[in-house]
């Protein structure tokens, strides 16, 4: 059974429906994003990016932080009403952006952008007020920095949406290309990977049951101090066209993520617990970061402003986005969703009757299948950037990713259908008394 730490206060978290609703909607964005990538078409790439990074990853982060910041810190969530409101606003905004980009309807983008900002800023305010009352550590420092990046990336996104609709950027002396580079940098390396780094600082020792080393603690302190600064310098240098500033930031970013990957790998190698789908996927994350970081540092040293080097070494962007970002979300959800359901459905029965273990709530065979499909898709996607490949390779990557995404989503939705207290339509669209303020 997955470890259930004894020093967390699950009563401090929000009602079960709030995080689970985020996860269910995010899974829909995952399948839609992969499907759009397979279908292709004009505007398909940008639409897919927003469906996957904003819709799937960011909504998952919003749900997870809303649940576990109160649980880890033992501080009650600042507002349940605001936490329930953030999802429909952000989801509508992200979906509107994807639709507008997919079909070239630029007039939709400012409205969708405003909705996305309203949802994300509601999340930032709610979790930020909760963090303000918490005891600060490595994880909370990362989360606080990530909240700041969420504000910056959505602000940049509004600027891009307005420029698509009305061409406003030249008025303020910026170009769309430079703002796009900064926006993508703040999204992936700022909002997403800062959150990932902070979460892994908490989750890796918890679920590998390993102790920190003196060298590891020193490296983690250095990463905590330097990584957010690196993101700001990289994004600012790209926005203003300053290669020296961007180069310094790039080296700090690559170095910080290398530390995250190495520390995660060390804990996984030292783990004495039974391996689960969560830890297996974390192994992919560790390997991806350790391989990506030095090669991307070299590419960024050559030209940190190049669009091809937006996510580091041009050939390794899939390794970062799929191998690191994608697999850390996959692995975390394979624990978080069953954990939240188990705590609310079975924890009170423990010791009084037979109850399933957390890892028995989902199907191991399906987990193996989605892991193989998504792992193969990631490897093939990296291979396409390393040398000539047959023309059908891209379609194979998309099909493998789609099958893996459907298997993954179905496996987790099966947990909710079989063990959740409500139907999926009620969970997603219902209004619950338990979500109101106490």
TrEMBL record:
<feature type="transmembrane region" description="Helical">
    <location>
        <begin position="140"/>
        <end position="160"/>
    </location>
</feature>
<keyword id="KW-1133">Transmembrane helix</keyword>
<feature type="transmembrane region" description="Helical">
    <location>
        <begin position="392"/>
        <end position="417"/>
    </location>
</feature>
<feature type="transmembrane region" description="Helical">
    <location>
        <begin position="281"/>
        <end position="301"/>
    </location>
</feature>
<feature type="transmembrane region" description="Helical">
    <location>
        <begin position="109"/>
        <end position="128"/>
    </location>
</feature>
<feature type="transmembrane region" description="Helical">
    <location>
        <begin position="23"/>
        <end position="41"/>
    </location>
</feature>
<protein>
    <submittedName>
        <fullName>Uncharacterized protein</fullName>
    </submittedName>
</protein>
<keyword id="KW-0812">Transmembrane</keyword>
<feature type="transmembrane region" description="Helical">
    <location>
        <begin position="82"/>
        <end position="103"/>
    </location>
</feature>
<feature type="transmembrane region" description="Helical">
    <location>
        <begin position="365"/>
        <end position="386"/>
    </location>
</feature>
<feature type="transmembrane region" description="Helical">
    <location>
        <begin position="180"/>
        <end position="203"/>
    </location>
</feature>
<feature type="transmembrane region" description="Helical">
    <location>
        <begin position="247"/>
        <end position="269"/>
    </location>
</feature>
<keyword id="KW-0472">Membrane</keyword>
<feature type="transmembrane region" description="Helical">
    <location>
        <begin position="321"/>
        <end position="344"/>
    </location>
</feature>
<feature type="transmembrane region" description="Helical">
    <location>
        <begin position="53"/>
        <end position="75"/>
    </location>
</feature>
């Amino acid at each position: 059974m997955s470890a259930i730490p004894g020093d967390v206060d699950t009563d401090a978290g929000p009602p079960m429906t709030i995080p689970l609703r985020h996860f269910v909607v995010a899974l829909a964005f995952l399948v839609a994003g992969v499907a759009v990538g397979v279908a292709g078409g004009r505007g398909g790439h940008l639409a897919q990016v927003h469906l996957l990074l904003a819709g799937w990853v960011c909504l998952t982060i919003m749900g997870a932080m809303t649940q576990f910041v109160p649980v880890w810190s033992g501080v009650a969530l600042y507002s349940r009403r605001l936490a329930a409101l953030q999802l429909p606003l952000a989801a509508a905004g992200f979906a509107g952006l994807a639709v507008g980009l997919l079909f070239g309807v630029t007039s939709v983008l400012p409205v969708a952008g405003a909705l996305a900002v309203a949802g994300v800023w509601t999340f930032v305010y709610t979790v930020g007020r909760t963090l303000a009352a918490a005891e600060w550590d490595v994880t909370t420092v990362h989360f606080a920095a990530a909240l700041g990046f969420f504000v910056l990336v959505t602000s940049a996104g509004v600027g891009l949406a307005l420029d698509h609709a009305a061409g406003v950027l030249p008025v303020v002396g910026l170009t769309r290309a430079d703002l796009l580079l900064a926006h993508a940098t703040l999204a992936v390396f700022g909002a997403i990977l800062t959150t990932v780094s902070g979460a892994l600082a908490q989750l890796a020792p918890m679920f590998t049951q390993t102790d920190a080393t003196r060298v590891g603690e020193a490296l983690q302190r250095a990463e905590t101090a330097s990584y957010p600064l690196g993101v700001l310098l990289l994004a600012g240098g790209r926005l203003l066209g300053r290669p020296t500033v961007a180069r310094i930031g790039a080296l700090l970013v690559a170095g910080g993520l290398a530390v995250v990957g190495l520390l995660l790998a060390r804990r996984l190698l030292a783990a004495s617990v039974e391996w689960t789908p969560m830890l297996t996927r974390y192994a992919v994350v560790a390997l991806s970061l350790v391989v990506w970081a030095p090669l991307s540092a070299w590419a960024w040293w050559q030209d940190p402003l190049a669009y091809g080097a937006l996510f580091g070494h041009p050939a390794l962007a899939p390794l970062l986005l799929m191998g690191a970002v994608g697999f850390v979300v996959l692995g975390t959800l394979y624990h978080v969703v069953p954990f939240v359901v188990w705590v609310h459905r079975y924890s009170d029965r423990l010791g009084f009757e037979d109850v399933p273990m957390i890892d028995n709530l989902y199907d191991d065979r399906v987990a193996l299948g989605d892991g193989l499909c998504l792992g193969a898709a990631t490897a093939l996607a990296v291979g396409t950037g390393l040398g000539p490949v047959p023309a059908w390779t891209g379609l194979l990557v998309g099909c493998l990713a789609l099958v893996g995404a459907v298997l993954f989503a179905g496996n987790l939705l099966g947990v909710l259908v079989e063990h959740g207290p409500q139907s999926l339509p009620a969970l997603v669209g219902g209004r619950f008394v338990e979500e109101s303020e106490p």
